[in-house]
Every structure is written in C-alpha cells, then in structure tokens.
Design brief:
This protein is mainly beta. It is built from 6 helices and 38 strands. Its main location: membrane.
Length: 715
C-alpha cells in the first residue's frame, strides 16, 4: 500500500502507478493506494519488477510529492521438478569389465532458485538396473556394480535414473530418464567344435583343389573376435589334403591336394585345429583359444580309365623296314581292383594316311605302309587304350616315331649344268666344276666320286677329273672346236656315294660350242649367227612402232567422231529412213496408245509439256527443248501449222536428217457449234434446222433427219 503524508482522507489525492507490469500485472487503487497482483507470479519467468508511484491532486492534476520507485522481488517456491538434458541416454562398455567402470554421466537441471532453500538441490538415484549398475547421487555418474558381466548371457540393459530436488527429502519434485547400456564383445570365448570326429567320403577321381567337405568350430564371440583359422596339424593325409577358411561363414573347407588312389590307400585320418586369430591377453586365463577335431576321409573306388606305363613313348624305325614290321609296344593297365582287360587303337585323326597300326590285344605298333625319311622324318600319333567292358573308360598317350635314314637315294647334281666351250679353246682347259647332293643323311659326311659314263669315257671330246672333295672338273681333251660341225655336246657323268649300299646315278652336262674373243669371252653360241642376223633390224623396229602409233591415232579419232555424232533414232527399219517415208503397218491402240505420241497434245496445243522430249529418238542432253508459246484461241489451222513448222526448222534438238513430223489441229470450233442431238432436249421448243439444207450435199442426211416436222407427218 502506498500512502502520502498529504493524504487527509478527503479524497482529494489520486494514486497512479507505472513501470514493469503496471496496469496489466499490477494495479493500484487510486483512492487508497493499495497495489494488487492480477494473476499468479512466476519467479522463473521474471524474478524482479521495478515500479514507480506518485500521488497527484485530483482537481489540479499536479503531484503533491516527488515520484517514488520501489522494487518487488518474487520469492521462490519449489514449483519446478528436475529436468534431464536428454530423454534417453545410450552408452556401451566392454563385457567382463571391472566393478566401478565408468559407463556414462547423466545431468538434470532445476529451474528453481538455487540460492533460496533446497528447491534446486538435485540428488540422483537408480530406480531400475540394479544390481548391475549404480549411480553417484551428486554427480549422476553411472558405474558398473557387478563383476564379469558376460555379453553372451545378456547384451542389453535398460537403467532408469531419478533426479529429485529438495536434496532428496520428502516432498521434493523428481524427474526420470532412461539409459540404454550395451555390452560390447571381447574375445573371452575360445572356438569349440560341436563334435570330436567328422566323417567324409571322396571319390578317387576327385580332381586336385576340389572340396571334400566343411567343418565349423563355434565361437560365441562376434566380429573379429570370432575369426577362426583352421589347419591340419597331423595325420597320414597331411600331404594329401589341405584346409582353408571361408571368411564369410568361418568354416574350414577341406580340399584335395594330390590325386587320390583307392587301390593304394582308401582311408585318411586328419587332425584339424581351429584357432582364434585375435586373442586378448587379458583372458588367457580362461584357457587356450583353440580346439581340435579328428577328420576321417574315406576314399571311394570309381571305374578309372586305363593308365599307360609312360606319359609318352619315343620309338625309332628304319625307313626300309618291310610292311607289318613291329616298331614298338605300348602298355596300359586298368588301375581298378577288377583289372579289366584293355584294347588298343590308333587315333586316326593323328594318322590320316594309316601309315601305322596297332595290335588291339598287346599294344604292339607296326607299319602298314612304306616309310620315307626324306618325305617325313617324325610321325606323331596318339594311341587310345579303352576297357573292353566299358569303352567309355579310355585314355590317350602320344607316341613319337622317328624314321631312321638308310642309303636309298643316289647322289645327283644340285642344278642343271649347261656350260660352253670356246671354239678357240686349248687342250686340258677347265670349262666347268661339278658338285653333287644326296638326300640321305650321312653321319660321317658324304663322299662322292665322279666319272664319265663308260660309253663316253673313250670317245668323248672332254675329260673328267675327280677332285676328291665332292667336286669334279670338266676339261677339254683337244684344241679348237667347230660349232658348225657340232654345236652341242651331252656329257654323261656317273656320281656315286660311299655308303652302304652304294648308290649311283648318271647325270648329263650340256656343253655348247660358242664363238669367243681372244680373252675367252663368249660372243655367240648359235651356229647360224654368221649367216643370218639374230633379231630384227632397227628399221623394222621403227616401222612397227610407227604402225602402232598410227593405229592408236585412228582409234582416238574414231572415238571422238562417235561422240560428236547425233544419236540414231530408236525406230529400227530395214530401209534408210533419211530419204524414205517410213511405213507403220500397225493400227495402234487409239487414244490409249501413248507410247509414240501424245494424242492429247495434238488435240490441245495449250497442254504441251515444255520439258517433254521427242520420243522417236534417243533423248539429247546437249540442248534443252525450247519453250514455245501456246497458240491463241483465235489461231486457225494454217497459222498453227506454219508456227509449228517454223519451230521445227529452228529447233537445235531436232535431228539433222529428214524426219516425219505430225501436225494435227482441228481448230477452235465451228460456227455451227455442236451437231449433237444430246443438247436438244434442253430447249423448251423445237429448233429450226433448215440451215442444214444450205450446207450442201455432205449435210443432206443431217438435213433429212432434222428437217421440218411437217415433212415427218406427211411421210
């Protein structure tokens, strides 16, 4: 209440109020000065209000005292409960953590005045989550309260924390929050096989690197703590099998490393070990983080194809062996316990010429055709061995046959020898050196001997000297030769080798007698060279060349003239159409026949197509047709014909010879107009046709038909 010393209680003063909330939140009784609040006040909204009051004379409106200021403070009461900063907290800790391990800290705030009483003093407590977790009452720190909490037993925990003001005393306000706590995994569980022994079966035909089976050790941990590595530690199949780890399923895949053989060993026993790859040293006290199991692999028998004693065979045979000679034997056996009999055959795709054959029972290979080392040195064939009872079970082996050489080819000249001797040659003059080749192979080197054939040894004009180095020389026996007497000599030479059996052949050397200069250079070897000149003279060559040039010029001129000639008419006639009238002995198709002429154009000159070319000759592309003006409606027939005649005379595209041109034009009409009776029905009355009688005898029949009506009645 405000009161002025000037107030005598007679109602002459008036109290007014201004400042925070004046007139709205706070009102004043202007007569008594009592200040009242209009609604409930909230300290958390505004704790202090500053107001100003003054007393004025009601009649004059003047203040009777200076304006005074006063402060209204709102005293706090516990009307706000504690509020957590989050509605839900999420936290995680490793499993097997020690007691008192920090988990998370929760925080709650109270809007009440912390300086006034205990309204804002918050105390934390746990409502749900014991005995696993605890919370510090003053700080809100949550810690573990139980030792060795195992994720594999329970992974998720939900803890409810309460925050209460008034220091936790009775009557205080409270708020709660939820804390979700997850236990993360640690490697505290070793792998364990669910069974101690595993049984698998594998066919002996299983190829290497193929899977036999899968085993798996269980690990309660997750992620990298559950990663397992498998290995074979011992067993009689240590070198026959291997094991790898499937990273996706953590299974051990047992695979075959080498080919299995039921007949040699049909049972393998392995010891497989599973070990964690990431071991936590803190939990080694729980035991070794590995486990082992026994794996028994039973090898099953399958029907296998025959197996050859060698992976490949190499044989040798001389090229002169007779047909059906055995050159070697291949052997194959059935590896199965049944030991089924085997039959042999040659793959004919590798022996298309059927040079070799094989005994189907014992595998001996023999020749079926003669061999020739010089034709083919190596024969590569394939032999097939198949079970008689089951031919599908077969195997193949390559057989390489080398053909050995025998001396079955005689030596011969490496080329055709043709030499010459000068007419003025001296005796014992070397004119040619000979050599020889042999298709056969000689291990110690070829040694050839040369000699003249017996029939030429005594009567020949030449001698032969063997140089003992696989060459020989031909020498003249006499001086001077005459090519007009004998122009060519044929000298037979016998060549022999020194292999067994000795092979020899007779080769011929051609020797021409030629004219030479004093230095021995050949000039001519033709016997008629001195009598008849060889070849053509220079004058004859020039004459032939001129004839060829004249012929080429004639052809060029002829082609040029043909290009300048006008094209021939397409009309083909046995007679010359340039000086004769062509007779067409066909009636034609009337107006529908438009192959030769456009009849419509003849009837109507205005419908002429300016770009239409003549049809009786080949189209000429050198000149374009001239555009002519259409005849006027009043042009008569004579003017029309003269106009067309002038156009044809001056047309550059017209042929240069006489041609038949048709001029047909019936004119623009007749003064009598239409003579048809079809139009007579359109008139209301009879028409007068008396003028027909005046047209002459040609129109007499029409005059009789369309005469006066009286004459019709009389008749």
């Amino acid at each position: 209440q405000l009161h002025s010393d000037q107030d005598k209680g007679d109602g002459s003063l008036k109290y007014i109020l201004s400042g925070d909330g004046a007139g709205d939140l706070f009102i004043i009784n202007e007569n008594t000065g009592d200040i009242q609040a209009t609604r409930r006040l909230d300290r958390e909204e505004k704790p202090v209000y500053i107001l100003r009051a003054q007393a004025i004379n009601r009649r004059t409106g003047r203040p009777v005292e200076p304006e005074s200021e006063f402060i209204i403070k709102i005293h706090d009461i516990n009307d706000n409960e504690p509020m957590f900063t989050k509605d839900v907290y999420n936290a995680s800790i490793p499993e097997m953590s020690d007691v008192g391990t920090f988990v998370v800290q929760v925080t709650a705030t109270d809007a009440d005045d912390p300086t006034y009483g205990n309204s804002a003093k918050v105390v934390y407590s746990i409502l749900q989550g014991q005995p696993y977790f605890s919370v510090e009452s003053e700080t809100g720190i949550i810690k573990t309260a139980l030792l060795n909490m195992d994720r594999e037993n329970r992974e998720q925990y939900q803890v409810v924390i309460q925050a209460k003001d008034m220091g936790g005393q009775m009557g205080g306000l409270s708020g709660t929050t939820t804390v979700n706590i997850t236990l993360t995994d640690v490697n505290d569980n070793p792998p364990r096989f669910p069974q101690s022994t595993y049984q698998f079966r594998a066919a002996e035909s299983t190829p290497p690197d193929s899977s036999v089976g899968r085993i798996k050790a269980n690990d309660a941990d997750v992620d990298e703590n559950a990663e397992i590595e498998y290995s074979i530690t011992e067993g009689d199949g240590y070198d026959m099998f291997g094991i790898t780890t499937d990273k996706d399923t953590q299974e051990g895949i047992i695979t075959v490393k080498k080919a299995l053989d039921f007949e040699n060993k049909n049972l393998y026993i392995l010891k497989v070990e599973a070990t964690n790859t990431h071991v936590d040293p803190r939990f080694l006290y729980l035991g070794p983080f590995k486990d082992s199991a026994t794996v028994r692999i039973q090898v099953e028998d399958v029907d296998e194809p025959p197996v050859f004693s060698r992976p490949a065979y190499i044989m040798e045979v001389k090229e002169d062996v007779p047909i059906n000679s055995v050159i070697g034997t291949v052997t194959a056996q059935d590896p199965d316990a049944a030991k089924n009999p085997v039959k042999y055959s040659v793959d004919r795709h590798t022996d298309m010429d059927r040079v070799f054959n094989i005994n189907s029972g014992n595998g001996s290979i023999f020749t079926s055709k003669p061999l020739d080392r010089e034709t083919l040195l190596w024969h590569n064939i394939t032999v097939i061995a198949a079970e008689i009872n089951n031919p599908k079970q077969s195997s193949r082996v390559p057989v390489f046959i080398k053909v050995l050489d025998v001396n079955d080819n005689a030596p011969e000249f490496p080329m055709f020898y043709e030499t010459f001797v000068c007419e003025n040659a001296k005796a014992e003059q070397l004119i040619q050196t000979l050599s020889a080749v042999d298709k056969d192979d000689s291990y110690s080197g070829h040694q050839f001997s040369f000699s003249l054939a017996p029939e030429a040894a005594s009567s020949s004009n030449f001698t032969l000297q063997d140089n003992r180095d696989n060459t020989a020389g031909i020498f003249t026996r006499k001086a001077r030769y005459n090519r007009h007497e004998t122009s060519t000599y044929f000298l037979p030479v016998v060549i022999s080798d020194n292999d067994y059996p000795i092979q020899s052949s007779t080769e011929t050397v051609t020797i021409r007698v030629c004219a030479c200069d004093h230095r021995g250079k050949m000039l001519s070897c033709n016997a008629e060279a001195l009598i008849h000149p060889t070849g053509l003279s220079t004058g004859a060559l020039i004459a032939i060349l001129l004839c060829i040039i004249i012929l080429l010029v004639t052809v060029v001129l002829f082609a040029a003239l043909r290009r300048q000639r006008k094209k021939e008419p397409l009309i083909i006639s046995k007679e010359d159409i340039r000086d004769n009238i062509v007779s067409y002995n066909d009636e034609g198709g009337g107006e529908e026949d438009t192959q030769a002429f456009d009849i419509g154009t003849l009837r109507n000159p205005e419908a002429i197509d300016d770009n239409k070319l003549r049809r009786d000759i080949v189209p000429e592309t050198l000149f374009m047709p001239r555009r002519t003006a259409a005849a006027r409606d009043n042009t008569d027939v004579r003017d029309f014909i003269n106009q067309r005649l002038k156009e044809n005379d001056t047309d550059p595209t017209a042929p240069p010879y006489d041609s038949l041109a048709t001029y047909a034009y019936e004119g623009n009409g007749s003064v009598a107009e239409s003579l048809s009776s079809l139009g007579s029905v359109t008139t209301d009355g009879d028409q007068d046709y008396d003028y027909l009688s005046d047209w002459g005898p040609r129109f007499k029949k029409l005059a009789d038909m369309y005469g006066p009506a009286d004459s019709d009645k009389d008749s």
